[in-house]
Design goal:
The protein has 119 residues and is mainly beta. The protein is built from no helices and eleven strands. The chain has strands spanning 3-7, 10-12, 18-25, 32-39, 46-51, 58-60, 68-73, 78-83, 92-100, 107-109, 113-117. A hairpin with a 6-residue loop joins strand 9 and strand 10 (107-109). The N and C termini lie far apart (40 Å). The relative contact order is 0.31.
Length: 119
């Protein structure tokens, strides 16, 4: 059974940090590129950060560059999103996504974790 389970969300004040985790099971984690998406109320889901299957390359949404860091531990089947200097515009539900690098490019989603930045 494929699962992506996110954790680490919560309510923080502007300028604070959070670390999201996503634990994968039911598939070969090292064959998958991993991404974090987010969706704010009334807005479309957007790609926040991505990391290649072995962690050699990362990419970020412009508005989070220098503040967020994506990483992965293939021995723990886990991907992380370290979020620093949070602001109100980062408030959203954050989703973990896995996409297989080889055909048939299976894709999986987690259930999401809420991040709220408010004073």
């Amino acid at each position: 059974q494929v699962q992506l389970v996110e954790s680490g969300g919560g309510l923080v004040q502007p300028g604070e940090s959070l670390r999201l985790s996503c634990v994968a099971s039911g598939f070969t984690f090292s064959r998958y590129a991993m991404r974090w998406y987010r969706q704010a109320p009334g807005k479309e889901r957007e790609l926040v950060a991505g990391i290649t299957s072995r962690g050699g390359s990362t990419n970020y949404l412009d508005s989070v560059k220098g503040r967020f860091t994506i990483s992965r531990d293939n021995t723990k089947n886990t991907v992380y999103l370290q979020m620093d200097s949070l602001n109100s515009e980062d408030t959203a539900v954050y989703f973990c996504n896995a996409r297989e690098i080889w055909l048939p490019h299976n894709e999986y989603w987690g259930q999401g974790t809420q991040v709220t930045v408010s004073s």
